[in-house]
Amino acid sequence: MQNLILKLYGATPRDKMSGLGIRKADDGVEELVYVGYPDRPVSAGKAEELALQAQKLDGRGYKRLIILGWDYEYNYHQALESRKSALKDKIKVEIISRDIPPDIYDYLKKAKTEEDIEALSEKVKFYERPYLKMDAPKIKDLKDGKAEITLSVKRYVLMDIPISQSSKKGQEDYTALMKIAKDNFAVLIDYWAIDWDYDGFTFKSQWQAFRGNGKKARTVTTEAREVLDKKKRSIAVRVVDIFGNDAGAVMEV
Fold it and tell me: pTM of the full predicted structure?
């Protein structure tokens, strides 16, 4: 499975190194490519480990690391930034994290030969992982052992906008959306949900804000407020954008 995905991405699998491949990018840079496992999210710790390995691999090292993940841990970008900051200048490799598209199984069913894989590689798109940042939770103490908790989405960034620019209309649509999103990132959000008592395993949607469809569509609110029992808790957030990408965060209060 990992080797097939590497080939669909245009990378050549490495011998004796499962999940790793080499790809020459359009800008001429040789990239080290890693494919994650379907049953486990890619963690910031794994990304750090791969980056340090990439810098020394094959003697010369690699300047760019591409991570292809089925899923990523909550707070992935923030955790990775913290790890890079703690290591100061030890990580010099560029890290790009991309999502493996959920419909890739449909493509894999069609790939019977090497020629089939080469043909399909032009159709499969591995978009860069969206960036989500939450404001620190605001807590207001109330009576009777209650507290009002306010959460706010501070920033949501789509690294890749999946709009074809092969036509004039496509270019115009892309430019228009980029301009709108720059002024108000919330236009990109289809819905977001909160689990106010996240157990670390299963996300339970207990609060939602939806964009809606057609004439009822509106920009979602980026703030949520709830009155809960005053205690230590983990709160998980999941954001899904208008293109179906998702990102998550976990906060301790």
Answer: 0.82
